[in-house]
TrEMBL record:
Belongs to the RER1 family. The keyword Transmembrane applies. It comes from Apostasia shenzhenica. Involved in the retrieval of endoplasmic reticulum membrane proteins from the early Golgi compartment. This is Protein RER1. It is a multi-pass membrane protein. The lineage of its organism: Eukaryota, Viridiplantae, Streptophyta, Embryophyta, Tracheophyta.
Length: 192
């Protein structure tokens, strides 16, 4: 028979599929549990990035992989700093971000949420780390030129993003913003 192992006619891929399903469930469980702990998640990602940087430093190669990783992280950063609905395109529809106190308040919603941003960066560093074990990805290149080009690209891209933020008056971060709380119980209305 095709696709069967000799035991009871069960397909040979069933144990592999079961293992993959079990692994996927456990991975998703731990991923879900990490959601309310952003500081710990980012510290773990920083550790993964440090291991990658140490690997590239010790091997003295894989600069093309690092450059590609840098471009990908820059792309993720732009998505993280951008609003879900671009105000330039929204003005064509007649709706825009509030510019006066009487305008309707619209909260800042990111195009790329923080959790997906973290997960994508961590995955990217893990993939880049794995790529450093295959010599096919170690293309000889003069790395200072790549580094200079990436810095110029970063500066120009961030300048454009910051000008966009200033033009449409939005801040993609929570610090420095007013925090509004619910009604606090007064001392006279307390029950014993």
């Amino acid at each position: 028979m095709e696709g069967t192992s000799g035991e009871g006619g069960a397909p040979a891929s069933v144990p592999l599929a079961k293992w993959k399903n079990d692994f996927s469930r456990k991975f998703q469980y731990y991923l879900d549990r990490s959601t309310p702990h952003p500081v710990e998640r980012w510290l773990g990602s920083l550790a993964v990035a440090a291991v990658y940087v140490l690997r590239v430093y010790l091997v003295q190669g894989f600069y093309i992989v690092s450059y590609g990783l840098g471009i990908y992280v820059l792309n993720l950063l732009i998505g993280f700093l951008s609003p879900m609905v671009d105000p330039e395109l929204e003005t064509l529809d007649g709706a825009s971000l509030p510019t006066r106190g009487s305008d309707e308040f619209k909260p800042f919603i990111r195009r790329l949420p923080e959790f997906k941003f973290w997960y994508s960066i961590t995955k990217a560093f893990c993939v880049a780390f794995l790529m450093t074990f295959f010599s096919i990805f170690d293309v000889p290149v003069f790395w200072p030129i790549l580094l200079f080009y990436w810095i110029v690209l970063f500066a120009l891209t961030m300048k454009r993003q910051i000008l966009h933020m200033i033009k449409y008056k939005y801040i993609p971060f929570d610090f420095g913003k007013k925090k509004y709380g619910g009604k606090k119980p007064s001392a006279g209305s307390r029950r014993d």
